[in-house]
Amino acid sequence: MKSAYPGSLKGLLLVAMPVLTDPNFNKSVTCICEHDGGGALGIIVNRPDPTLRGRDIFNELSMAFTPATGAIPIHIGGPVHANEVFILHGPPFDWEGCHLITATMALSNTPDILQSIAAGKGPADYLVSLGCAGWGGGQLEAELKENTWLTSRIYEDAVFKWEPDNRWKKVLQKNGINPTGLSSTAGHA
What we know:
Blueprint: E1 12-16, E2 29-36, E3 39-44, E4 48-53, H1 54-60, H2 67-70, E5 73-76, E6 80-89, E7 99-102, E8 105-108, H3 111-118, E9 126-136, H4 139-145, E10 149-153, H5 156-160, H6 164-174
Parallel strand pairs: 5-9
Antiparallel strand pairs: 1-2, 1-10, 2-3, 3-9, 4-5, 6-8, 6-9, 7-8
């Protein structure tokens, strides 16, 4: 699902370059869910909270859950809307408020999908996060010009399968980049 906005990064991954030392984004991999003239919204996919699990979210929302779904990790999707639940997921896409990112991935944050996940009946592939990453109009474009981010095609395995601690390094490697060779100094050729 390509956005009508020229230069849209919707459906791509943003990979933080070493120059990005902000603790919210250092060595982060972010799935860009929307990008237009008003700004961009993404979900960081490699920041599982060290203690939060599905049971914490489901208990707070009074949702019944299975032992397996109670143990799912909850990711920190970004510093914006930190108390809101966002779910990156594969098919099906018939949830209320489902927002397609690509032909095979969507973003949802409505109770119907969360209740299905809690019951063990949700999509086969999903990532539950609290919060999202957001950029105002032109902000992300300016950060790209400063070499703060590398853009990458989306790898669904990077979002749903790979170990979170390895996602940054593996996305770089999939793009032919040796992470140890990256400089922490921004510049332009």
